[in-house]
Amino acid sequence: MRRVSPGTDDLPWAGRGMPSGGLAHGTPMAARFTKWGGGRHWEWVGRYLGVDEHGHWWYSPAGTRCSRPGMEFVEEDGWVSLVPHVGAYAVGFYPQGRQVSVYVDMTTEPVWQRRDAADGGPEWEVTMVDLDLDVVLTREGDLFVDDEDEFAEHRVQLGYPPEVVALAERWRDLVLAAVAAAEEPFGSVGHEWLRRADAAEPVLGDTAGA
Question: Which of 15, 39, 68, 100 is the most buried (most CB within 10 A)?
């Protein structure tokens, strides 16, 4: 199937700021979203899974703590996330039993970087600016764009430059079409990464072999 990142066939498999070949499997890493102007947004810690033609993948197991200013919660289910080699979005794939199957945040181009040791936490993080627009696919197959009103409000309040507005709208349209057509990684690839990650995760309370 056609990829949603056009023109990337000859690019090396390294995200912006990522070492060639990616990180070691299981490396702890932080995901850090900000808002335009530098305000903090969603943050959590997961484990790097690997890289393929679609981008870099990481796993956040059940019990992961997600936080942003004024809100914090602990996830009951594990999920996998992807940032593409080329593109301005980040996507989460969620398990059976969740109302949302695929959730794609439009962002600035994700950047991988080493964290300052004084900050504590994982050595590596991927960071991006959240640009409000989200493409959402429910478990029942409903597909829609969310937070368009927030995008319209923030482009004025936060002063999105015209090129940032165009970036968010372009990738919204590309991703929406790709999800609607079940193009990879939105078809089956993402949930296969999740299946493998869940299968490798120890079952809480399992004392077999202890």
Answer: 15
Q: Which domain holds residue 189?
A: 28-200
Tens digit of each residue's pLDDT (9 = 90 or more) over 90-122 = 999 999 989 999 999 999 999 999 887 777 789
Q: Is residue 64 part of a domain?
A: yes
- DSSP tag of 184: T
Q: How many CA atoms are closer than 13 Å to the CA of 101, on its beta-carbon side? A: 20
Q: Say whether pLDDT at 210 is over 80.
A: no
* 22 domain-assigned: no
The long-range contacts involving 59-66, CB below 8 angstroms and separated by at least 24 positions, are 59/193, 59/194, 59/197, 59/201, 60/31, 61/197, 61/201, 62/201, 62/204, 66/42
Our count of domains for the chain comes to 1
Span 34-76, pLDDT tens digits: 999 988 999 999 999 999 999 999 999 999 999 999 999 999 9
Return all residues near 172 (Cβ < 8 A) that are at least 6 apart.
106, 133, 135, 145
Tokens of 199: 């299968």
Q: Is residue 208 part of a domain?
A: no
Total H helices, total E strands in the chain: 3, 11
DSSP-derived 3-state class of residue 32: strand
Distance, CA of 12 to chain centre: 20
